[in-house]
Amino acid sequence: MQSITYSRNVFLSVTDLCKNHCGYCSFRREIGEAHLLKRREAFRLLARAAEEDCTEALFCLGERPWEVPGFTDLMDDAGVSSLLDYLVELCELALELGLLPHTNAGVLENDALRRLQPYNASMGLMLETVATVPAHDLSPGKHPDVRLDHIARTGRLKIPLTTGILVGIGERWADRERSLMAIADLHRAYGHIQEVIIQPLDPKPGTALADSQAPSMQELCSVVRMARRILPSDVAVQVPPNLVHPLPPVEAGANDLGGLSPVTLDRINPGRPWPSLEVLRTCLKGYALVERLPVYPQFIQRGWHGAKTRELVAALAGEDGLRKKKYIC
Fold first, then answer.
1. d(Cα 164, Cα 142) in Å, to the nearest integer?
2. Nearest to 133 by CA among 257, 22, 225
3. Phi/psi of residue 219, each to 5°?
4. First and final C-alpha spacing in the chain
5. Which residues of the chain have pLDDT under 50?
6. β-sheet bridge partners, residue 196
7. DSSP codes of every residue in 153-166
8. How far apart are CA 240 and CA 92, in angstroms?
9. What is the residue-wise DSSP string for 256-312?
10. What whole-number distance in Å separates Cα of residue 168 and Cα of residue 249?
11. Rounded to whole angstroms, how far apart are CA atoms 289 and 157?
C-alpha cells in the first residue's frame, strides 16, 4: 500500500504585517490592523498543540515587517525589542513544550538564517514562480532572483527546506515548468529541498485576483505529474487537502499532504478548514496515511536539522525517521 505523509502541526501567525502587496493575499494587514503575536497567546497555542499530540510549530510571518513604518510600535506593545530575538524565543518555547519549529519568515540574510537554524527542524520559502506577473508588481520580495538566491543560500547552510509554486497567479504553463526545473537544479546542487508544494490559487474577496478562475482539477493534476517528472525522486510533492480534493493529485503523483492542524486554521487560507483524518481516510481509501515530522527522514540521517532540535527529534522519530507513534490509515 502506497504511503502518503502528513505532519500534525499548529499554525502561529507571528505577524501579518508585510512589505509585499501580493494580488492574491488576504493574510497581510495594514499597520493599523496588523498584530504581533503576544507571548501569552503563543504559549496557549503551543500548549494546546502539545496536548493534541502535534509535533510541528509552524511560525509564519509577513516578509520584512521591520521595513514597514509603524512596526516598532507593534513590537513595543508586545514587549519585543528584536523580531529575530523574539523568533528564537518562540522557537525555544516550542521546543520546551515538545514541538519542533518550522519557520517561514520570508527572505532573510545569512546572519538571520544562521541565528534561526539551530532552533528549527526545517524552514520554508515558497518560490511561487520564476515568471514576472502583475500580481507581484508591488512585491519586491517576490522577485524570482531574490527568491532563488534565498533558496540557494539555505542550501549552502544545509537547512532542510520546503518550497513550492503557486498555480493560477498569471503564470504560463512554460513558467511552471521553468519554476520546477529551477527548484530541481537547486536541489541537485545542494540536496536540501525536502518537499515542493503545488498550491492552487484560492481567489479571495477584496484581492486583485478575486475574480480570477482557480485552476481546474485537470490542470492541477497535470502540474503534479510534471512536478513528479522534473523533481528528483527524493523530493516529496505536496498538495494542500484543504484547497483541493486530494485523491486526483495523489493519483497523479503527489505523496504528501503537508501540515494538518487540530488546533488552528490555515491563516493563509482561513476560509478553507483542514479536513479531519477520518475524512482523509475516506478520500484516500487504498492509501496509507503516515505521520512524519517537519524534518524528513533523510535529513535526520544526515544531521541537517538544527542542533537544538536533535534531542527532541530523537525522541519523536522512529527507526525509519517518521513519527514514532504513527497514524496509519
1. 13
2. 22
3. -65, -45
4. 10
5. 326-329
6. 163, 237
7. HHHHTT--EEEEEE
8. 28
9. EEEEE-SS---TTSTTSPPPPHHHHHHHTTTSEEEE--SS-HHHHHHT-S-GGGHHH
10. 16
11. 31
The per-residue b/e assignment along 231-245, b for 16 or more CB within 10 angstroms, e otherwise, is beeebbbbbbbbbbe
Angle between helices 217-230 and 173-190 (to 10 degrees): 30
Structural contact between residues 189 and 223, judged by C-beta atoms closer than 8 angstroms: no
Radius of gyration from C-alpha coordinates of the chain: 18
Torsion 129-131-137-140 (CA) sign: positive
Q: Which three cell numbers stand for residue 54?
A: 502535534
Q: How far apart are CA 287 and CA 116, in angstroms?
A: 36
Q: Which three cell numbers stand for residue 161?
A: 527546506
CA atoms of 311 and 309, how far apart (whole Å): 6
- Specify the pLDDT at position 1: 84
For the chain, give every domain's residue range: 3-316
Q: What is the pLDDT of residue 298?
A: 98
What the block records as the C-alpha cell of 271 is: 476560509
3-316 folds as TIM Barrel (3.20.20)
Q: Give the separation between CA 76 and CA 85, rounded to whole angstroms.
A: 14
Q: What is the pLDDT of residue 327?
A: 43
- Name the helix (H) or strand (E) containing 139: none
Residue type for position 49: A
C-alpha cell at 15: 505577524
